[in-house]
Amino acid sequence: MENEGAAFERIMEIMRRLRGPGGCPWDAEQTHESLKRYLLEEAYEVIEAVDAGSPEMLREELGDLLLQPVFHAVIAEERGAFSMEEVLGTLADKLVSRHPHVFGDQVIKTSQEQLENWERLKQKEKKEERKSALSGVPPHLPALMKAHKVTEKAARVGFDWSHVDEVFAKVVEELHEFEETMLAGDQERMEAELGDLLFAIVNLGRFLSIDPEEALRKTIARFTARFGHIEETLHGRGVSLKDASQEEMEALWEEAKQRERQGD
Questions:
Q1: Which part of the chain is the NTP pyrophosphohydrolase MazG-like domain (predicted)?
Q2: What is the pLDDT of residue 125?
Q3: What's the CATH architecture for 143-210?
């Protein structure tokens, strides 16, 4: 633990120097606002490292992600707002208080019970009377993730289907409604119905314990890999994408899918 503490303090001192007199002009110019994009970028690069299954890559990307709270904490320290010690103290206190079954004598047997208890304790700690059961969902979450979070919260207060068949029927219903508006050529209603369809699919994923954001992200990765196979093969044949026939590209697409199944 001492080594961890020394390593963390070293990072803090490096950042203070970078932002101090004679430090780095770019680092010194950064603000909480200017750093927002980097926080998101680094978080997604950690996800990429997890997917790659590389401990070395994950170690590096976790360090890059950790740089962001260090950066923000030093900026806040300079302004007299709060310190990293306060950040870590708040986190430690929160982890202890929201796990009374570990650090206290409360009995919690399942993950679902813990999730529900976490939300109750969170409201109590914040001393807030929420206007809605859906309150507390970050407004800037990606749409699929936000939809998943909103429906989770609604389900916790009993607004939910009782069986997955009902959810699947809702998806089919929304698909038919979208088809009707598409055939009618009503662009404004098409957008609304497509949104309803996507929302229903998110609910279906939630019922089946499938994260819709993760599912779509993996589908995009598969699409990118398959399309890359098409490009690479055509390039090897001396054929450009624009000169390749649809049939040729479809055959290569199926070939890429087959290679995926074989684990190649």
A1: 30-103, 168-227
A2: 74
A3: Orthogonal Bundle (1.10)
